Amino acid sequence: MGEKATHFGFSEVDPADKAERVGQVFESVADRYDLMNDLMSLGAHRLWKDFALARSCVRAGHRVLDVAAGSGDMTARFAQRVGDAGQVVMTDVNPAMLEQGRKRLIDKGIGSNVEFLLADAEALPLMPGGFDCVCIAFGLRNVTRIPKALESMAQMLRPGGRVVILEFSHPVSEWLSRAYDLFSFSVIPPLGRIVTGDEASYRYLVESIRRHPDQNRLSQMMRESGFEDVSYHNLNGGIVALHLGFRY
Questions:
Q1: How many CB atoms neighbour CB 42 within 10 A?
Q2: 158: closest CA among 182, 188, 131?
């Protein structure tokens, strides 16, 4: 291996192989991704995303970059907020997920102020300093090199721009952590098998959450990548955390 091995769930893999494996996961589940999100979170993911939108402080006329946008939940929210005078660039590294998001937005009548771009979060091919807000929701843990993705996102922000990172995190209490583990490993993979026919992909997604940096570590990584005034908010006892930072 040319680089130090990275994690793919609980397995260790060559960094050169992780992106392809993650891509296979999301290609497999793309058409049932939204249904599974509702089932896994009991609908709470919609509230988490609404909270992220509110804390983004995005307003009419802003330019927003939605990284690893998946099926476009946050893109749709931002597009409605920025209005005709603003713009949202929706990116994902996986063609199947990007197409799924494009179709969903068109079905909602959204698209005139949205641009769709196939792009890697670690090397965003856009003009630096062009966005008021950069968001990544439930995508950072799937990135091979998180520091590179954070640095790339920081470069996209104008001075004073804000990054919004919504991601599964680490419960703050031991009893909640145990209950969450029981639900995650006993319920979600079998549910994935029933709904999508793919248990292995959802076992990876559960494992990837456990390998993701905790709230304090991710905050430190953000500071090291050039963000300032970094803060986070625990949601549902730390099962999810919203991280915020600024580029000055």
A1: 7
A2: 131
Please give the DSSP secondary-structure letter assigned to residue 70. Answer: T
Strand partners, 64: 88, 133
Decide: residue 187, CB within 10 A, 0-12 exposed, 13-18 middle, 19+ buried: middle
Task: Tell the CATH topology of 15-171+209-247.
Answer: Rossmann fold (3.40.50)
A 10 A CB-CB count for 241 gives 23
Report yes or no: 125 and 98 within 8 Å, Cβ to Cβ: no
Whether residue 59 contacts residue 82, with contact meaning beta carbons closer than 8 Å, is answered with yes
Helix (H/G/I), strand (E/B), else coil: 145: coil
How far is 203 from 61, CA to CA, in rounded Å?
Answer: 40
140 secondary structure, DSSP code: G
Distance CA 223, CA 166 (A): 16
> The pTM is what?
0.91
β-pairing, 131-137 with 87-92?
Answer: unpaired
Closest to 52 measured CA to CA, from 66, 70, 40, 32: 66
Q: What is the pLDDT of residues 113-168, one digit of tens each?
A: 999 999 999 999 999 999 999 999 999 999 999 999 999 999 999 999 999 999 99
For the purposes of burial, counting CB atoms within 10 Å of the CB of 213, is it exposed (0-12), middle (13-18) or buried (19 or more)? middle
